[in-house]
Automatic annotation (TrEMBL):
Annotated GO biological process: D-xylose metabolic process
Annotated site residue numbers, Lowers pKa of active site Tyr: K81
Protein name (database record): D-xylose reductase [NAD(P)H]
Lineage, broadest ranks: Eukaryota, Fungi, Dikarya, Ascomycota, Pezizomycotina
Annotated positions binding substrate: H112
NADP-dependent oxidoreductase domain span: 19-285
Active site: Y52
PANTHER family referenced in this protein's UniProt entry, alphabetically: ALDO/KETO REDUCTASE
SUPFAM superfamilies, alphabetized: NAD(P)-linked oxidoreductase
Amino acid sequence: MAAYDVRFKLNTGTEIPALGLGTWQSAPGEVAKAVAHAIKVGYRHIDTALCYGNENEVGQGIKEAIDSGVVKREELFVTTKLWCSYHARVEEGLETSLKNLGLDYVDLYLMHWPLAMNPNGNHPVFPKLPDGSRDIIYSHSHVTTWKDMEKLVGSGKAKAIGVSNYSVQYLEELLPQSTIIPAANQIENHPSLPQQEIVDYCNAKGIHITAYSPLGSTGSPLFTAEPIVAVAKKRGVTPATVLLSWHIARGSSVLAKSVTPARIEANRADLIHLDAEDMATIKKYSDGLAASKSFQRFVFPPFGVTFGFPDKE
Ligand SMILES: NC(=O)C1=CN([C@@H]2O[C@H](COP(=O)(O)OP(=O)(O)OC[C@H]3O[C@@H](n4cnc5c(N)ncnc54)[C@H](OP(=O)(O)O)[C@@H]3O)[C@@H](O)[C@H]2O)C=CC1
Ligand SMILES: O=C[C@H](O)[C@@H](O)[C@@H](O)[C@H](O)C(=O)O
């Protein structure tokens, strides 16, 4: 099977396509085109979030692809996320996203970060206190939010629910109190931040891992890491291909953001099956970073909370 055709089974029984199109920071005027193009060239998995402010355009791209006959809705896997200022009004969060997207349901609805922000603050998405810090409601537990998310599943409007940015510590708080085990945990993941402890924990619990910022996010800084370049040379592919293919070899799905048609195409078409030797080369690199405590985390918003991430303790 071609690497771009790989799918992974979720604990709901549904399959998630290994490669998804990321849309964070995809600019207005660009993202609808990127989504439509991605679907046209074979992507079946699209990732967005309420806080990206682009669900509307993502929905337009999906509609364009469906209207042109390229794909049927049921062939797509669409993920969106509950934003922090909606933790105390989960159903409203989902309804808002569905309306923005122009969809009747999403395939996966994730709690974006395990932290509630003030729904009545000075901004609907990024409320802040007078001192400039984020307006967080510490008394609202992520477990309460999850219990409200569990209620969504029966509605059919979220086919599966999951979490994002969860550490082992937070999952250990959540799982004993859950009725539904999260279908997925979407986390930052790449050879410079392998998060092996959370990947192993989720694998053991039947929670699928989806990797975000696989290229190191904006400007793709991971392309120059020497072992990635070495594997790329050996396999005759680009560093981007190695970084994306690494997740598929680990059993994780991976989100690659691009608004550039040629990159959208290559990120899918060039995917390969990395072999044991390739994986060992990359593991050696990750192990070296672990030993020198020099993991690189590119996405760490200023919540003022470590989320139990070992590299931030
Ligand atoms: N749950 C969460 O908290 C988070 C979720 N995410 C999700 O994961 C997705 C991916 O992560 P993201 O942080 O966006 O970053 P990525 O690691 O996907 O990197 C995106 C950057 O790489 C560039 N790029 C893409 N493909 C190539 C290529 N083949 N060659 C050279 N450059 C390339 C893009 O440029 P260009 O677009 O100009 O082509 C963009 O600058 C997000 O878009 C979002 O959907 C991301 C962060 C946090
Ligand atoms: O999904 C991507 C990221 O998590 C992003 O949503 C956050 O970093 C957000 O911009 C924030 O500032 O909290």
